[in-house]
Amino acid sequence: MRIKSLLAPLLRREFLRYLAVGVLNTGFSYSIYALLLWLGFAYFVANLVALVCGIFFSFQMQGRYVFDNTSRRLFPKYLVLWVLIYFCNIALIKLLLVCGFNAYVAGALALPPIVLLSYVLQKYLIFNVNRRPDQLQ
User: For a surface tag, which of 8, 105, 123, 127 has the fewest beta carbons within 10 Å of its beta carbon?
Assistant: First the structure.
């Protein structure tokens, strides 16, 4: 019964929408990356452009469809949080590499905790529906 109570918040519609938007964002970003490669751009340029577009796209989609908060004033905080999550992801992958996993497995193993961390931080630090910036005095 305890496991069910721990998983209950993750099975709420909000979290499932978060996962769906994440999948959509991944497809969107990769499509831009692939298109730019096809157009002849270097992989590092294509990756950077896809990353920047993905961050803007994700901010809009998460705000609108997951957390119901579309205030543009949140974007600087979102960007800082995204950088923090990136470094957490890199640190976790490094730890898993030190433990003997290869980079592919380490990256895959890092995904679940990073997705959860990202969801919790975005929910409570960025898109907090209890303290929407457009509702503050």
Answer: 8
Query: And the tokens for 44?
Result: 């590092």
**What are the φ/ψ torsions at residue 66 (nearest 5 degrees)?**
-110, -55
The dihedral sign for the CA sequence 91, 102, 10, 82: positive
What are the φ/ψ torsions at residue 130 (nearest 5 degrees)? -80, -20
Split the chain (137 residues) into runs of 10 and give each run's mean pLDDT. Answer: 58 84 90 92 87 92 89 93 90 93 87 89 83 45
CA dihedral 82→120→94→77, nearest 10 degrees, is 20
Residues 133 and 49: their CA atoms lie apart, in Å, by 29
Residue 78 to residue 58: CA distance in whole angstroms: 10
Count CB atoms within 10 A of the CB of residue 118.
Answer: 21
In this prediction the pTM is: 0.74
Which residue's entry shows tokens 């959860």? 116
Residue spans of alpha helices (H) in the chain? 2-7, 13-38, 43-61, 75-98, 103-121
Domain boundaries, the chain: 1-70, 72-128
